[in-house]
Amino acid sequence: MARSQGSKPTSVQRRQFLQRGAMAGAAALVGSSGVADAKPQAPAPPAAGQAPGTTPVMTAAAEAASPGEVQVLGALERGGSDYMVDVFKSLDFDYIFANPGSSFRGLHESIINYGGNTRPELITCTHEESSVGMAHGYFKAEGKPLAVMAHGTVGLQHAAMAIYNAWCDRVPVYVILGNHSDAAIRRAAEWYHGVQDAAHMVRDYTKWDDNPWSLGHFGESAVRAYKVAMTPPMGPVVMTLDGGLQEHPIPAGEHLSIPRLTIPAPPQGESGAVEETARMLVAAESPVLVADRLARTPHGMTLLVELAEVLQASVIDYGSRMNFPSHHPLNQTQRAGPAVGDADVIGRLEVTDFWGTINRLRDQLHRSTRRFAKPTAKLVTITTGDLYIRSNYQDFRRMQDVDLAIAADGEATLPSLIEAVKRLTTGDRQRVFDERGARLAATSRAAAERSRIDASYGFDATPVSTARLCAEVWAQIKTEDWALVSSYYSPDVGGWARKLWNFDKPYQWLGHAGGGGIGYGLPASVGAALANRRHGRLSVAIQTDGDLMYAPGALWTAAHHNIPILSVMHNNRAYHMEVMHVQRMCNARNRGIDKGTLGSELTDPNIDYATLAKSMGVYAEGPIENPSDLAPALRRAIEVVKRGEPALVDVVTQVR
Amino acid sequence: MSRMTRTARALGVATASLAVVVSTHATNVSAQTPAAADVATGQALYATVGCAGCHGPNGQGTAAAPRLAGSTDELPAFLSYVRDPALGMPAQSVQAVSDAGLADIYAFLHSPLASEPGQATDAAPVGSAETGAVLFRSVGCYQCHANEAQGGANGPRIGPDPIPFARFQRYVQNPTGNMPPYTNKVVSDQDLADIYAFLQARTRPPAIDTIPLLAPLLAP
């Protein structure tokens, strides 16, 4: 049990209590001084009539026996975890997600009683992976990190994949682990839940962690962890909280303060390098701006629009954040290949995979690559990815030679870059910009027109085409204040939502999972919907079947906590990306692919997602196979969502 | 849906399977040609830009590339495809040929100077669309090209109006992009003929402006 430095014995109030044996298994009893007795005492013998190892029962003999001593806090005393709640309140956590666990029972109790279960409010989760996924989605919708509580061992093991997603996505999640460090007083289960260094297993993909040994230490580290998590490049952090530190009373007379939180200003690009970047962009004939995790705040999209319009430059939005309006005339995302191929200057704004922006990998038996950008194209990067990197996990992607690299936050650097571009733009260049803008607007219109035509093929087919699915959902939400909160590659549904919907607000698209770990979509969408609830937005998720089956309990969390969200199933009854990969191997080995779906399909039996959702208190319809049945089902479901509840519509779809 | 996506970003950009051009819509495309378009200029550009090298001197198509003469593509779709083609065809930048130049080429391809529409450059063997439908699924074409061959993010539309059979066959067996190769051992020539018949039998959608759900998002 960790203790506060310089702690004095506490004046706990002693009470007689007719109970004994409840702490069976404790090897040593803690005396009134709070110091472990040097002589281990034998466990109390079973009460008369009680078989060894059974639950004590209230008997006359038991009542007659000498009562044990227990300790409860006096009226003016507080547990260590009460102070922890004070600190967490100072950090302004709106919610805290947890699947309950005994190693953080002290903190759990403080949150719901001492803290009044408000800010943070405890959100009950059915899996730690869901807890972290919800916090991930919440941050992307609200811009505020949330806390997650988990066992330091089994809970963290469940949570690990979701933490990795957050790490790859540069999203701050505040992970709190419970752990009983002092082996001398562990209960039996606490041995399985005890660990020397809890954060070790996720240290490769978290930004910072600590294991405080006193409440004063906790206060500093808790605030520091928040500050570290929120400083770009952002990332998840871990606080390991000893069970004793949570449960033991705050030493009498100890004055605990809460450090003041000051989030550092994000690093801005060096002025000379920014000036040189502006010079290159202004002189370029075909500049292209590529953005991925650029829009750190809602203002990021506004800034990128301004830079693009000042230059009349092409923008390619990789979509890990809502960087650029989907149907802005300068948005060339639908024709990214030729835009990059034409470019003479390519600006990379918080793009992890710059190599993949200008090169292609051919995935055949012998993999080959080729660069499709011009060899003379100048490459400039502005990214915090150059500030912080880890080696073990390879999410940093392939090395790309560049002409100018600015290690700085993209969004923070845009204002000075815009200013420099404006200053360097002459009348002659402005005429070039205007002509370029007109050309780009025409190609953008042509791409939009082609998308409409492409969507019309197979429009009435059964199972429902993904284009039809997106068109039907759009028809029902386009007059609402909506946000698409599902965010994995596949829920992008072949890119149809971004082709057919008009994304023009920063909160309407939240990006992808980050690390490609499936099981993110459902909890992240519920977490984002929780954030959207206070704004009155209609949260819409296009929910894939394989993803939902990882931890469907997040549906129950949505029902239990009245989180309104419309989940429309993209139910293609398989892990189809994997079917494709196995098919590729079958073909490469020339063995035929008649068995290629083995191991990847979710059929025989088909999963009834509507019934699954209903069993957890969620309004649901489906499975729907006829596209003409979609509109009325969606309308009914949206009415439910508008009442403040979750709803699910199961749609059997084509592959992608 | 998918479990691991290490290459998803690369595939999302680069994965195109059959590098084909298909007719995009059944409309009176010649009405889309700008009045200012010049057929003679288009004919000259068609040669100098390099279209003829693969598509034949009069747009009649070759074993290397599909027929363009009399294409049912609307001009915007034609422009868009030339700027951003599927793998196999090089993209033409605005520096190489302007939009006005492409409009001229388009006018040429829909003029009497181009090859007469409807003339196939090679004949497809007889196939069964019904058998092809089964094969289309069992050999996995639908994985990237979708159930009705309408295409998607991982593969282009390949029906209706597929590319000439010879080129189709060659691409399936020796794809230049990311599409897995299908040898004769796993998909016979007759299988390909049946699949081709299935592609030919796909129905065209109604005119785009008759589908309210696909109304333009923004005012023109």
Q: Radius of gyration of chain A from the CA trace?
A: 28 Å
Structural class of chain B: mainly alpha
What is the number of strand segments of chain B? 0
- In whole angstroms, the N-to-C terminal distance of chain B is 36 Å
Q: What topology, given as strand order, has the largest sheet of chain A?
A: 4-3-5-6-8-7
Oligomerization state of this entry? Answer: heterodimer
Terminal-residue CA separation of chain A:
54 Å
State which percent range the strand residues of chain A make up. Answer: 15-25%
Stretches with pLDDT under 50, minimum 5 residues of chain B: 1-32, 117-121
Number of beta strands of chain A: 20
Number of H- or I-type helical stretches of chain B: 9
* DSSP helix fraction of chain B: 25-40%
Number of helices of chain A: 22
Q: What average pLDDT do the residues of chain B reach?
A: 77
| Shape call of chain B | globular
Sheet with the most strands, sense and barrel status of chain A: 6 strands, parallel
Helix content of chain A: 25-40%
Walk me through what this model shows:
The complex is a heterodimer of chains A (656) and B (220). With 656 residues, chain A is of the alpha/beta class. Chain A has 22 helices and 20 strands. In chain A, the strands form five sheets. In chain A, strands 4-3-5-6-8-7 form a six-stranded parallel beta sheet, with helices on both faces. In chain A, β5, α5 (154-168) and β6 (174-179) form a beta-alpha-beta unit. In chain A, α2 runs parallel beside α7 and α17 (521-533) packs parallel to α19 (554-560). Chain A is globular. Chain A starts with 12 loop residues before the first strand and ends with a strand. Residues 1-9 and 11-56 of chain A have low confidence and may be disordered. With 220 residues, chain B is an all-alpha fold. In chain B, α2 crosses α5 and α6 packs across α9 (189-200). The longest helix of chain B has 12 residues, at 189-200. In chain B, 53% of the residues are buried. The model of chain B is unreliable at 1-32 and 117-121 (pLDDT under 50). Chains A and B meet through α11, β12, α14, α15 and α18 of A and α1, α4 and α7 of B.
